[in-house]
Amino acid sequence: MNQAALLNRFRAEAVATATPAKLLTMLYDRLVLDLDRGIAAIAADDRAAVNTHLNHAQDIIHELRASLDLDAWDGARGLMDLYNYIFVELVSANIARDAARVTACRDLLIPLRDAWHEAAASTTANGAAVPAAPAAAPRAADAATDRRIGELGVA
């Protein structure tokens, strides 16, 4: 088995065995990475890379929106509104090649990512079962598109 195949197998197994909280933090980490790469690609005037990274970020936002249980907690509607705003901003930033818009989205997402990491770590450190997250952990497959979480590059 070559190196690429081993890496793909590792990623698939990491996603398949991850807890819901871990999946959520993996998605947020990859989302921020895509935004960073998108910003760098805009600076380098690499249109293909900009499109690739910002489209991938949009895919992750879509998955976060699709998995959000609006009835799970009072703040869910606000989080959905934020996801919707970020999605629209990323589409517009991709069209206009606007690094400032991508940076603004990234700046909104960093505190959320950090909060999810903190919540996941505190539940794991306490040995407690991870409760159902307000953002509902992403499903193994999106019923509408039948895309696997691993295809989002979260490992």
From TrEMBL:
It comes from the Bacteria. It is found in: Cytoplasm, Cytosol. InterPro entries: FliS, FliS_sf. GO terms for biological process: bacterial-type flagellum assembly; bacterial-type flagellum-dependent cell motility. GO terms for cellular component: cytosol. Keywords: Bacterial flagellum biogenesis, Cell projection, Chaperone, Cilium, Cytoplasm, Flagellum. Its main location: cytoplasm. Belongs to the FliS family. This is Flagellar export chaperone FliS. It comes from Georgenia subflava.
